[in-house]
Design a protein that fits this description.
single chain, 412 residues, alpha+beta, Collagenase (Catalytic Domain), Immunoglobulin-like, six-stranded mixed β-sheet, four-stranded antiparallel β-sheet, 19 strands, 16% helix, globular, disordered N terminus, binds zinc ion
């Protein structure tokens, strides 16, 4: 009995932090406390009551800047692609571990209706992989600065300082992957210099394969930091330093919380007289122990895309133009796809009033072509999708100079 008691005391000490964070999970509180980020700006940029319609899918073009010192940090495309997949699962509530959410909070879990694509078009209008690679002579560049006061700059964001310049931060989410003493940190709208707007992730906490290292190997560091990029705060408050049951995250359906949870806390645990939502993506817990955003976090995130909102420019970005073309002219109504979601085989009717050849191509969310055929519309009936992994895909139908796209979901 005595041994068990001692172990549980040890567990309590290692699992929770009250007050100031000593975790390296996320650097936002540190940069806020040190004055590099301004909390005043966070409060000013909130547009709490203006949300885009929930059914309007938002696609965020992503550019990933790999800034490496040791060759191992020059992570492969597969690791980058695994991160995009993880973001798409988490922000569409398609993550397989959604079932870890306790019943008490299940009704709060939310499909944010935001997706991510690796950019297919760069700021100059050229085709791109959405990935840049830069060798840097600076070890741990994610923590390195030049200048002081208002002129202070974090080097990873600047080509001239041995990092890599951002792509237009109005049109792309810039993700820098480089070594730092934090697993990640992310810019809340208006809180950083425009040139530094985006998120930074350590290569060992990025994606779900290769260098991604347990317990941070499910891509949730990036999910958390994108939460910041879309104006979410930590559950213990926007002003950092949990601990007083007064500071709020400005989200009405996340319970007030004074404890900063680490590792993998059991359920239920409470502070501020209510059970805490320890499985929220904005906590510091291990990747396997977080699984959801809430309904009101969705409203707050989507509000940044509203007219004159800080992320409005993403909506008109052509960064993923080959996946979401803007000039659709082919008759959408003539194309009937069923079932959708699908598994095994998917049936397609091309009810065109002409028999000109149609190019049918299927892409995953990374812009990779997974199927292609040129066919007479009357001859085309169905395709075998049993080899595809579960997730979101886009059909591109082209006839002459006309084209249109259709989204499908493949069940796992
Ligand atoms: Zn954070």
């Amino acid at each position: 009995m005595k041994v068990i008691f001692s172990l549980s005391v040890l567990l309590m000490v290692s699992c929770f932090l009250s007050g100031q964070s000593t975790s390296n999970r996320c650097g936002n509180d540190y940069y806020t406390e040190s004055g590099y980020y301004s909390t005043e700006t966070i409060l000013e940029t909130v547009v709490p009551d203006v949300a885009l319609r929930d059914d309007e899918l938002i696609t965020i073009p992503v550019v990933v800047h790999i800034v490496w010192y040791d060759p191992s940090e020059n992570i492969p495309n597969a690791q980058i692609e695994s991160q995009i997949d993880a973001l798409n699962a988490d922000f569409r509530m398609l993550n397989a571990d959604i079932n870890i959410v306790p019943n008490e909070f299940a009704s709060l879990a939310s499909d944010i209706n935001i997706e991510f694509c690796l950019a297919t078009v760069d700021p100059n209008g050229n085709r791109t992989s959405g990935i840049t690679r830069t060798k840097t002579p600076i070890d741990g560049i994610g923590d390195k600065f030049t200048g002081s006061g208002d002129d202070q700059k974090r080097r990873i964001h600047y080509t001239a300082l041995d990092g890599r310049d951002a792509w237009d931060t109005k049109s792309y989410l810039n993700i820098w992957v480089g070594k730092s003493s934090f697993l990640g940190f992310g810019c809340q709208p208006g809180l950083c210099k425009e040139e530094e707007d985006g998120i930074v992730i350590s290569p060992t906490a990025f994606g779900t394969t290769c260098l991604a290292n347990a317990p941070y190997n499910l891509g949730r560091t990036t999910t958390h930091e994108v939460g910041h990029y879309l104006n979410l705060c930590h559950p213990w408050g926007c002003e950092s330093n949990g601990g007083n049951c007064v500071k709020s995250d400005q989200v009405s359906d996340t319970p007030m919380q004074s404890i900063i949870y680490l590792n993998c806390p059991p359920y239920p645990l409470s502070s501020c007289e209510s059970n805490d939502l320890t499985v929220n993506f904005m906590q510091y817990v291990d990747d396997a122990c977080m699984a959801m955003f809430t309904q009101e976090q969705k409203v707050r995130m989507r509000s940044v895309f509203a007219e004159n909102g800080p992320r409005e420019g993403i909506l008109s970005s052509t960064g993923c133009a080959l996946i979401t073309p803007v000039n659709k002219t082919l008759n959408d109504d003539a194309i009937v796809i069923s079932p959708n979601p699908a598994k095994g085989c998917i049936h397609i009717d091309l009810n065109f009033d002409n028999s000109a050849e149609v190019a049918v191509r299927l892409f995953n969310t990374l812009g990779q072509e997974v199927y292609a055929i040129n066919t007479n519309p009357q001859d085309f009936r169905s395709i075998d999708i049993s080899s595809l992994s579960g997730g979101i895909y886009f059909f591109l139908f082209e006839q002459g100079s006309q084209f249109t796209t259709k989204k499908i979901i493949v069940d796992p």
